[in-house]
Amino acid sequence: MGGSLNPNTDNPEFANNPRHEFNFWFDPEAAEIVLRAPWKKIVCTPTDISIKTRLDASLVKRSKRARRRWHVYISRFAMYSPGADIMWDELAAAAWIDPTLITKSETRYMTVELDRGAATEYVDLD
Q1: Which long-range contacts (CB under 8 A, 24 or more apart) does 72-80 make?
Q2: What confidence score (pLDDT) does residue 2 get?
Q3: What's the pLDDT tens digit per position in 17-68?
Q4: Which residue among 67, 75, 86, 112 is least packed, with the fewest CB closer than 10 Å?
């Protein structure tokens, strides 16, 4: 789980910087190492899908009825309080457990900005 392509949200975390995502921001050097490693294949779940999916009791109930393999994980660690109901890492884990959950994918080159200073942020002064 990491990165942010183009999140469509009014979530205040993305108000000033839509490309801001905690995992890549907190440790950009580690994120770059992972993205540049010679993996045969890497699947990245960006923030964009996470903010569209809210965890609530009805989702857990539906997953139990569908007998999805990720249900045990989701039901065990579910937190329904506002702010905790965004499925940041849960979607990445669920897709790893059950890849059939992925209904759309894109092939993209991803990198992490490692430069520091004023040039790393775009600011519209107009």
Answers
A1: 73/97, 79/55, 80/55, 80/56
A2: 86
A3: 766 788 888 898 999 999 999 998 888 888 888 887 778 888 777 777 777 7
A4: 67
Sequence length of the chain is 126
C-alpha 7/C-alpha 52 separation (Å) is 9
Decide: 113 and 122 in contact? Cβ < 8 Å: no
Q: Which residue, among 7, 29, 30, has the nearest Cα to 18 in the 3D structure?
A: 7
pTM of the entire predicted model: 0.68
d(CA 14, CA 92): 20
User: Which pair of tokens denotes residue 58?
Assistant: 């009805």
Looking up tokens 């506002």 gives 82
Output the six-digit token pair for 57: 């009791």
Helices (H), 39-126: 47-50, 57-65, 71-77, 88-97
**SS3 of 86, please?**
strand
CB distance 100 to 70 below 8 Å: no
Residues near 17 by Cβ (< 8 Å), separated by ≥ 6? 121
